[in-house]
Specification:
This protein has about 130 residues and is an all-alpha fold. Helix 1 crosses helix 3, helix 2 packs across helix 3 and helix 5 packs across helix 6. It starts with a helix and ends with a helix. InterPro entries: HTH_AraC, HTH_AraC-typ_CS, MarA-like.
């Protein structure tokens, strides 16, 4: 599986993040088995497909909390949480504060950014030139 295919998987997840993307849907999109996609996604992204979806949903929700005055319930439902309570529990588990505390700027959080799979780290690039 090429890095371009991994990038296509990440792109697909990002485009479908609000529709609760599944591993099976993603694997159908790229044309490989769910097992193979899962293994290659984990190998190249560094976390499982399920962890990625969860981290990105919470990070995008956090950005929305910071940048809008949308109700927490509306943000929770937008990102696939069953209730505001479920969203708040997941937010606290991920960031160590409630959405309300974050909106009031009582704390700083570390959001999970979308990886750029095709960007080769400089050390790897320089390592290949020395060989």
């Amino acid at each position: 599986m090429s890095l371009k295919t991994i990038e296509n998987m990440v792109d697909w997840v990002e485009e479908n993040i609000k529709e609760n993307p599944t591993l099976i849907e993603m694997s159908n999109y790229v044309g490989y088995s769910p097992f193979y996609c899962s293994a290659k996604f984990h190998e190249n992204v560094g976390i499982t497909f399920k962890q990625y979806v969860s981290k990105r949903k919470l990070s995008l929700a956090a950005i929305e909390i910071r940048d809008t005055q949308s109700r927490f319930l509306d943000i929770a439902l937008k990102y696939g949480f069953s209730s505001q309570e479920a969203f708040t529990r997941a937010f606290v588990d991920a960031f160590g504060c409630t959405p309300s505390q974050y909106r009031k700027r009582l704390t700083t959080i570390q959001i999970y950014m979308r990886p750029n799979i095709l960007l080769v780290p400089e050390e790897e690039f320089l390592g290949t030139l020395k060989d």
